[in-house]
Amino acid sequence: MRTGSLTIAAAAALVVAAGVVPARAQAAAGCRVTYEVTSQWQGGFGATADVTNLGDALTGWQLTWSFPAGQTVTQLWNGTVAQSGPRVTVTNAGWNGNLGAGGTVSVGFNGSWSGGNPAPTDFALNGVPCNGGGTTPTTPPATDVLGQVSTVSRVRAADAAVQYTWPGTYFEGRFRGTSVGLILNDATNDYTVQVDGATVATIVTPGRTTYWIRNLADGDHTVRLAKRTEGQWAAGEFGGLVGTVLGKPALRSRQIEFIGDSWTAGYGNMSTSRDCTSTGGLTRNSNADVSFGALTARGLNADYQINAWSGLGMVRNYNGQGTDNFRTYYETDLQAVFNSQVWPVPSSWRPQVVVVGLGINDFSTALNAGEKWASVDQLAADYRAAYGAFLDKLRARYGANTFLVLTYPDLSYQTTALADAIRTIVQGRNDAGDARVSALFYDNTALGLDLLGCDWHPSQRDHRILADAVTRHLAGLPLGW
């Protein structure tokens, strides 16, 4: 269990039993303690206790509390610590024993926990309880991250967190107050944090931490954490929110799934030059949260998934690399992580639209010697067959009512095989009675794409143009939205 800030105050003087208060210290007339878990990981945590003296000046102090779930202090600074069972006693250091009226001293420590980490509620300063008028922000148990936040992304429960790999994974929650903490464990990916719809932070490979958003206006807020980058080989972990967590937002009734490659993943879309090596490289310049899929969905107030993998194709990867194609990983929860499994599609995920963009990597480079296809015609035949089977899988997965939109850009500089294949696939499905399959051609020239992202990929401007194109196409479908 995670806990946020805990504020406890008392104003009345109480009689202190003999032997409880150090001989050199006076009794406090009242006190306030703000207790905050600043970071948490499996079996351990860091915390601070800010103690405000509401009585007369003190020349020595002791702060006591009891841990309610068997936690143990392992290291403490700004004082000395003794612990007997759940009872913790912190005595001032030699240099901070004077605590004036209204003065505050801060104690920090690391601790261990097992099974739960609820906040103490019985703080006392020199034997006087700090127990008046406070409120106790609460959070759901650490194992119930999805009880705090809403998501339709592919995630897997793992101890006190959820794991994920697919780009654009996002979580939405609600909280009350001026701050909120986000518990993360991810040394690979970057994130965007939004509060009330405004971006307030970009988190770069956070590692194991509780990332705090502070100094907000006091009140009720929404918070959104979105994974910007790809990371197919290492799962990120989100351990939930810390603070006064409110009921999570309801899922939206509209749902869209985006399937594809680097265009769909937002590869290098934040760059303003095709060579982005001098501006932070590919990872720093990629942001799935402003890819055309994310922009389209948010513009339509829809929840969405971005299931994309740069460099992979339907049957052939970029420049003929590797043997695993996109279809190898499409159904997995954690992509190429060693323990990845088939993602159990929940009843809450039933997209009305699936937008598929696979084929650039199949056809954008010439066939190499040693590849399994002797000609582009052979490649196109395999592509059409695999695409048909993939659409059958989507139909079995989501039903006959889901609209399937097959997108493709202009590759005429290399071949027309992709465009010809898509048109043939769509016509065949329509002729067979499946009218809910359509094609969307991204005419690079007509749309005015500049392809100024890393390595000739769509730029942020291009993604807005592509989002408009997808939105217009969806507006022409009988979705009933």
From TrEMBL:
The protein, known as: Cellulose binding domain-containing protein
UniProt key word Cell inner membrane: no
PROSITE patterns: CBM2, CBM2_A
Signal peptide residues on this chain, from the entry's feature table: 1-27
Species annotation: Paractinoplanes ovalisporus
Segments forming domain CBM2: 24-133
Gene3D superfamilies: 2.60.40.290, Galactose-binding domain-like (2.60.120.260), SGNH hydrolase (3.40.50.1110)
Keyword terms of this UniProt record: Carbohydrate metabolism, Glycosidase, Hydrolase, Polysaccharide degradation, Signal
Top-level division of the source organism's lineage: Bacteria
Source species taxonomy: Bacteria, Bacillati, Actinomycetota, Actinomycetes, Micromonosporales
